[in-house]
């Protein structure tokens, strides 16, 4: 491991790139490379996410956004480089360990249990966070624990699904399934929440409700990384934006800074030229 990673593992304080001098860096993606065969999905990725901030990752289709998120949550191992969270190196750890450290992810396609009630869908990740694995037998045994149910109910209230608690998860509308997934992330009290296109496929009304919800969590100081295509969402929520194209970072800054960046406009309109 190089000197840079060691610095990150010690909890580096950033001094540039739009983050204030005294900001605490909770996530440091340190010089990460990831290839699939001959395809360089991520090259030389270095980014830092400050505590309490909302950091958006944007870029055209195939830019490497999901690959980056998968590297952060342990679903993919980087070929080189490291992901450091609050001083712990995440790279190479299994997803449940990363989850235990306080990193939760909300997927692009909701991964819910359609036959279970909305409340039970949220009890399961609460139990997994406490016990370290998605152990259904353990869940059955522990189901009577009021504490977990109360916690799950609070998360559902937070996302506005309190009236649907007894309903089967599969019967929810698409927008409500996304909110259910958000509750499944929130119930774990994450220190860092990673969201993969939280408003994909939503109506404008649902999108605006989700923006309001995420603004509420921002006010509580939760650190978030959001992959998002909808610029209205990005500009409503992000403190900082990293722009990927063809697996590389081509721009980084505040939403206003990246909005006017010619390289970003070119990447979206006509592809990036080496
Ligand atoms: N498991 C895989 N095996 C082979 N190639 C992959 C794999 N996952 C991603 N890729 C390729 O890596 C590149 C980056 O893909 P990725 O899904 O990370 O992009 P993205 O920015 O999330 O795209 P989108 O916005 O369309 O979801 C693409 O060329 C994709 O085809």
Automatic annotation (TrEMBL):
Single GO MF annotation: ATP hydrolysis activity
Listed GO CC annotations: plasma membrane
Domain ABC transporter, chain residue ranges per copy: 27-271
Keyword Signal attributed: no
InterPro entries xrefs: AAA+_ATPase, ABC_AA/LPS_Transport, ABC_transporter-like_ATP-bd, BCA_ABC_TP_C, P-loop_NTPase
Pfam families, A to Z: ABC_tran (PF00005), BCA_ABC_TP_C (PF12399)
Keywords: ATP-binding, Nucleotide-binding, Transport
Protein name: Branched-chain amino acid transport system ATP-binding protein
Organism: Bauldia litoralis
Taxonomic lineage from the root: Bacteria, Pseudomonadati, Pseudomonadota, Alphaproteobacteria, Hyphomicrobiales
């Amino acid at each position: 491991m190089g000197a840079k990673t060691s610095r990150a593992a010690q909890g580096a304080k950033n001094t540039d790139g739009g983050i204030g001098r005294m900001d605490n860096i909770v996530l440091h993606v340190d010089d990460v490379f990831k290839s699939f065969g001959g395809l360089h999905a991520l090259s030389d990725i270095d980014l830092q996410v400050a505590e309490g901030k909302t950091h958006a990752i944007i870029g055209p289709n195939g830019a490497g956004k999901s690959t980056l998120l998968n590297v952060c949550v342990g679903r993919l191992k980087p070929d080189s480089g490291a992901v450091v969270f609050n001083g712990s190196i995440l790279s190479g750890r299994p997803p449940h360990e990363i989850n235990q450290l306080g990193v939760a992810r909300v997927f692009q396609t909701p991964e819910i249990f359609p036959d279970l009630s909305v409340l039970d869908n949220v009890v399961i990740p609460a139990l997994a966070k406490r016990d370290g694995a998605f152990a259904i037998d353990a869940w059955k045994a522990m189901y009577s624990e009021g504490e977990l149910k109360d916690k799950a109910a609070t998360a559902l209230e937070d996302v506005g699904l309190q009236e649907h608690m007894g309903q089967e998860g599969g019967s929810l509308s698409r927008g409500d399934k996304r909110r259910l997934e958000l509750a499944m992330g929130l119930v774990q009290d994450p220190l860092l929440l990673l969201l993969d296109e939280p408003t994909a496929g939503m109506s404008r009304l649902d999108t605006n409700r989700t923006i309001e919800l995420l603004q509420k969590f921002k006010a509580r100081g939760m650190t978030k990384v959001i992959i998002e295509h909808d610029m209205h969402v990005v500009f409503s929520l992000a403190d900082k934006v990293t722009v990927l194209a063809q697996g590389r970072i081509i721009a980084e800054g505040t939403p206003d800074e990246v909005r006017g960046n010619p390289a970003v406009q070119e990447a979206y309109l006509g592809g990036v030229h080496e």
